Please model this.
Amino acid sequence: MKLENETAELELIAKAFQAIAKEISYGGLADALLKTALRHSGAVRGAVLLSEGGELLAKADATFPREKAKVFASQPSVREFQLPDDLSERVFMRQETVVRDDSRKGAALIDRAECPTGPNVTVLCQPLIHQGQTVGALYLESEAAPALFTPRCLSVMSMLASQAAVSFESAQLFEALRETNMWMVRGQQIGRMGSYRWNTRTLLSRASRECYRIFDIGLDINPVPFETFRACVHPDDLPDLEKALAGAVSAKSPFSHEYRVVHRDGTILHVVAVGQFDLSPAGDVELEGIITDVTEQKVSEQAVADARAALARAARLASLGELAGSIIHEVNQPLTAIRASADACLRWLAREPADTDEARRSALRVVEQSRRATNVVGGLRSLVRDSHLRFADVHVNETIEEVLVLLKRELELAGVALKTAFDETLPPIEADRVQLQQVVLNLVRNAVEAMASVDGVRALSISSRVADGHVSVSIADTGVGVDPASAEHLFAALYTTKGEGLGLGLSICRKIVVAHGGRLWAEKNTTHGATFTFTLPARQFRRLSGSN
Amino acid sequence: MSSAFVHIVDDDKAVRESLGDLLRSMNYRTTLHGSASEFLDVALPDAPACLVLDIRLPGTSGLELQEYLTRVNIRLPVILITGFGDIPMSVKGMRAGAVDFLTKPIRDQDLLDAVAAAIRMDQHRRQEVVQIAELQKQYALLTLREQQVVEHVASGLMNKQIAIELSISEVTVKMHRRSAKRKLGAKSVATLVRMVGVLHAQKRGG
Model:
C-alpha cells in the first residue's frame, strides 16, 4: 500500500514536472504549479506569488500588483491577496517552509468579510528557490486537520517548488530573449538594416527578417541560396559586386560595397553592404555583416546633386551665353553695315547713269566696317589664345577615370550604361590635365545628350589605346549619330544641333586637342550612334606658354 | 522719284547710315535717328512712310517706342530689325503689330520687300483717311431729312416702310434718296449703303 502510494506519487510528480516544464510563460507556469499542488495536497485554496529581480515582496495584492511581486495565480481567484508580514518575512527572507494553524484573521486568501469566524485554517507556504534566490512562493490553505500537510506531502511540494523555480527562471530567460530579439527586429526595421551570414563554401546565407524585406525574398526561403541573392541585384551592378566579393574572400579583408537591388515589382533600392570574415562552428569561412537600405539618403543626395549640377550648368550656360551674345552682337553690327553698304554700292552703280559718288561713299563704308569687324575678331583671338596650357606628365586613363567619377550620377540618372576598355600600357603623355579633362567631360556630356532622346539601349563606351606614337581615346555612344556630311561642322563655333547650348563645346574641345598637337574628329557608327576620337602625341614636346 | 519716307532708328551710326544708303539707292527718302527720343523730336512729313526700328536701343527700347506710337495713334507701319537671340522680342513686336522683322545682317531684297509692303500699307491707310474725310464732308452737306432717309435705306428698309417711319409720303422719300445719292456721288444704292457703313465704322473706331 505504501509502495503503491509511492508509485502513484512519483507518477504524479513526473506528470507535474512535465506539465511545468512545458510552460514557458509566467502565468501558465504558475497555473500548472498551483493546480498540481492543490490536487496533490488536497488544499482548498492556494496562490503562487512571484518576485522579480531578486527582491522580495513584502506585500502583494491582486488588485494592485507591485512592480516587484505579482500574484500570478490564485484559486479561487480573489479580489485581494495579502500575505501576513511575519509569514512573508519567514518564507521570503529566511527561505523557510512554513506550516501553521492560523485563525482566519491570519489567512491570506480567505474572504474575511464573508466568513469572519469559523474553524482555523492550516497554511502552507513554500518558498521557490533558485540558485539561492527566492523567486516566489507557493501558498496553500487547508480547512482540514493539520495532518493534511504530511511530511511526505511537504517533500513532494518541495520537489515541485524547486522544479517550478527552475522553470520560472527559464521563463524569465526566455522572456528576456524574446524581448531582445524583438528589439533587434524592430531596430533593424527602423534602421532599415539587416544582418546576414554568408557561408563561402556552401554559398548559402542566413539573414535577418529586414534583409528579406530589403531583398524582397520570401521568408520561407531559408537559408538563401546565392543564386536567389544574385537575382535580386541590379544586373548593371552585379559584375562589380561579384568582383568585390571575390576580392574580399581571397584577401579575407573587411568587405564594403554599394549596389542596387531590384524588387519583383521593379522598385530599385540602393544598399550598402559591409561585412567581415569569420569561421563558422563547422570551420567554414563565413562573411558576417550588415546590409543597410540607403535608398532614402540616396534620393535626397541625388536631389541635392541634381540641383547643384543644374545650377552649375545654368551658370555655365548663362556666362557662355552672355559672352557669345555680346560677341555675336559685336560682329553682327559691322557685318550688317557691310552688307547694306555693299548692296547700296551695287545699286548706285546699276543706275542709268551710274552714281559713282554715292557708290564710292558706300564702298568706303564697307572698308571702314570690315576694319571694325577685324578689330573685334582680333580682340577675341587674344582672349581665347592657348596661353594658359600647363603641361605635365599625365596618365590618360586615370585622367578619364577622374572625370567619370564626376559624371557617375549624371550617367546613372540618364540611364546610360558605361563600359570602359583602357589600354593599361599607355605611356604617360605631356598634357594639360585640366584641359584634357574638359575635353573628356564635354565629349561624354555630348554623348549623354545625344542619347537622351533615344528609346533603346543607352550605352557609352570609352576606350584608350596607343598606336603610331599617338595615344587615342574614343568615346562611342548609341545616340542619334552624326550626319557624315556635317560631321566637320560640328566643330565650328556656335554650331549646334541641340535645343539648348551654344555650340561652343566641340569647338573648344578641338581647340584644346589641337593645342596639344593632336586631332579630334567624329564618325558615324555602323549600327547606331557616333564615335568621337581624339589623339595626342605620346611624346609631347614641351611647349612654351603663349608661343602661338 | 518716290516721295515715300523711311525713318530709320538704330543706335549704331554705321548701321543706320548704311541702311539709309541702301534705301536711298532704292529711291526712298530717309531720315536717320540714333534713339527713340531723337525720332520723336522731329515732325513727321506728310507723306507715305514707314519706320525701320532696331529692337534693341539704349534708353527707350524699340518695342517701347512701337507701343508708344500705337498708344498716341500714330499709325506708322513698323519694320523691326533684330540681332542674334532676339527672337522672343521679335515675337512680341510682331504681336504688337509690326509689319515684319528682319535679322541682321539684312539681305537687301528682304529689306526692299518689307519696306515696299509697309509703304503700300501706309499709302492705303492714308488714302482711306482722305476718302473718309471726303465722305464725312459730303455727308455733312445732306439735310437732316436726307440723312434720316439714307440711314433707313442703309438699314435695309423699303421706301414704303421709310415713309411710314418718318410719316412722310413715299414720293418724298424717293426725292430725298435721289438728292442724297447725287450729293454723295453714289451711283447705286449698294455704294450708298457701303458709304454709310464706312462712316459708321469710322465713328465707332473713334
Observations:
- Chain B has a mean pLDDT of 88.
